[in-house]
Design the sequence.
């Protein structure tokens, strides 16, 4: 039976990711990530820190972090939380509890309520003044001169690249816009994103069949099958047509 560290290493390699990729994504020290994959848990200082490293590792490669923490606890890597040994104080009421209000206090309260009821029911009503007749005033507003309508403003023609992404499956993704990292990490089913660039969009995918969306408002082609790792997808204004559905083959 393989260890937790060996299983995590296989999951990472299956997604085409390096330890440095995970370190860049999670900001966890490369030394601690190497200790996880080699099952050298004594290198990581304390169970709380081990749990945090495992959670970040699971998110980076798209694994269920709850299941990973449960397996680590069962394997003795993370100690199980100890339940509180103290006993809760008994809250059972006694049958012979004292009444909060004595019968005399209840009788006094009933008498006060009855007195207020009699007062409000028997007091005479004040005559209401007759409403004054309001004089109707009609204001005549001067007619304002008609102003000419401004000419419609023409929107400038869109340039560059605009990509909207809808995630149909859990997917690891990196997107560089004109050389700048603008999208990075694991996205879940139902997430969405939008990126823009003037010269180039460079895309790396850990699940090529897990996304769809549009390029400059038109649906783009699938980048591969579900679960496939595809890197260095370079889209420019010159070759964008090749990535659109029904518009030819993407340029290399």
Sequence:
């Amino acid at each position: 039976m393989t260890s937790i560290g060996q299983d995590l290493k296989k999951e990472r390699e299956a997604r085409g990711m390096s330890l440095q990729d995970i370190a860049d994504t999670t900001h966890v020290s490369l030394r601690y990530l190497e200790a996880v994959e080699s099952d050298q848990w004594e290198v990581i200082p304390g169970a709380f820190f081990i749990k945090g490293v495992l959670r970040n590792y699971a998110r980076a490669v798209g694994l269920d972090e709850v299941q990973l923490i449960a397996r680590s606890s069962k394997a003795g890597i993370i100690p199980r939380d100890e339940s509180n040994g103290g006993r809760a104080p008994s809250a059972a009421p006694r049958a012979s509890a004292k009444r909060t209000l004595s019968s005399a206090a209840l009788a006094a309260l009933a008498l006060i309520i009855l007195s207020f009821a009699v007062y409000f029911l028997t007091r005479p009503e004040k005559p209401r003044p007759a409403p004054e007749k309001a004089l109707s005033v009609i204001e005549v507003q001067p007619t304002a001169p008609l102003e000419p309508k401004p000419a419609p403003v023409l929107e400038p023609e869109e340039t560059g690249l605009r990509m909207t992404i809808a995630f149909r499956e859990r997917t690891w993704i990196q997107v560089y816009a004109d050389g700048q990292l603008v999208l990075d990490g694991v996205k879940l089913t139902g997430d969405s994103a939008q990126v823009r660039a003037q010269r180039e969009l460079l895309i790396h995918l850990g699940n090529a069949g897990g996304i769809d969306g549009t390029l400059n408002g038109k649906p783009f082609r699938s980048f591969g099958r579900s679960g496939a790792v595809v890197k260095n997808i370079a889209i420019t204004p010159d070759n964008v047509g090749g990535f659109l559905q029904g518009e030819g083959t993407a340029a290399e």
